[in-house]
Amino acid sequence: MISARQTSIVLAVAFVALASGFWFFPSFAFIFFISLLVQLLLVGMVNKLSKKIPRSVAAGLILFFFLLILFGLATVISVSFIPTFSSFIMDLPRLAAKIQNMQFIQDMPSINSSLDNMWGDIASMGSNLLRESLRFIVSTFNKIIDFVIIIFVTFYLLKDGRAILHFMANLFPRRDKVRVFHLFTVVLHSLQIYIRSQLLMCCITGVIVYSYFSIMDNKYASVFAVISGICEFVPVLGPTVASLFGVMLTATDTPYLIIQTACFYLIMTQINHNLIYPNVVGKALDIHPITTILGVVLGGEILGTAGMFLAVPCIVVVKHIILDIYQSEQELKDSTKN
């Protein structure tokens, strides 16, 4: 018979095997991750609607309206953002030259040399991102099969998600079924809170940044907004990088605006992460900032950009598995004493 300790080991090994899929089977991992992401976003609405109509119909309707919104956003991005971003990439060498010609930059050769390398990296990264975006749009037809698979997997996760959890829990010994099911439920709930809160933070940040640069009459307001929104999904480090990016490029219009923009980003970041974020997430995740930073850095080293996005979800899962093992060991000791 499998002991409680062996069950803990199986759970840990299962998570490691699942996480390794992002390295060894990236296509499969991508489909699974996106499907799970969408399911966690929509399952709340499906649960509410399924009280009035059959769950399969509720899942289909919610997924259909989600796809409509997604296609609408894709249309807006392709029509408005991509041309602006393309213009920004073309204009980047001129912007970089204006910054490097500033007097205080010229007086510090080491900073000037570092800026040369930084602008080269940014230009290369931006060109690659634009090229990959256009290539993605052109090759969408080649990805249609993956897209269809994601839709079907998401539908069945929405429709039968709880039954799937029960099936997985039933693979373990009878005495551990409740424990394993509770662990799965807690992990998914925490991931749901994290993903929804991060998306909300991204949207809030993007809107605020777009509003600010629009008021400043900056023609690249949408570029700053999208960059800030995406960077918000990488906790701690992302907003810092976006802030530095915005402050530096603001100097190309009017140097005195550097202080104003720096104050704007500082105030926005403080409000986001000391007022909005705690109220949105609460203490559900309870992860120390240093753990987040190190996790993001480690994730970036292992999987690059994708690893930075996946770092916190992995930390959440690891945290709950460790807590489950600890609680199981404590219960085992208590039962032995009795």
Keywords:
cell membrane, 338 residues, transmembrane, transport, globular, mainly alpha, 12 helices
Please write out the topology.
Elements lengths: L3 H21 L1 H24 L5 H46 L2 H4 L2 H30 L5 H26 L7 H39 L5 H11 L5 H14 L6 H25 L7 H15 L1 H33 L1
Helix pairs in contact: 1-2, 1-12, 2-3, 2-6, 3-5, 3-6, 6-7, 7-8, 7-10, 7-12, 8-9, 9-10, 11-12
Subcellular location: Cell membrane
Keywords: Cell membrane, Membrane, Transmembrane, Transmembrane helix, Transport
Family: Belongs to the autoinducer-2 exporter (AI-2E) (TC 2.A.86) family.
Structural description of this entry:
The chain is globular. The longest helix is centred in the N-terminal third of the chain and has 46 residues, at 55-100. The chain is built from 12 helices and no strands. With 338 residues, it is an all-alpha fold. The protein has helices at residues 4-24, 26-49, 55-100, 103-106, 109-138, 144-169, 177-215, 221-231, 237-250, 257-281, 289-303, 305-337. It has one domain (4-331). α3 packs across α6 (144-169), α6 (144-169) packs antiparallel against α7 and α8 (221-231) runs antiparallel to α9 (237-250).
Query: Any idea how many domains?
Result: 1
Mean pLDDT: 75
Task: Output the radius of gyration.
Answer: 23 Å
Choose one word for the global shape: globular
State the oligomer.
single chain
- Give the N-terminus to C-terminus distance in angstroms: 21 Å
**What structural class results from the helix and strand content?**
mainly alpha
Residue stretches low in confidence (pLDDT < 50, at least 5 long) are 136-141
| Major β-sheet profile | none
Assess the beta-strand content as a share of residues: under 5%
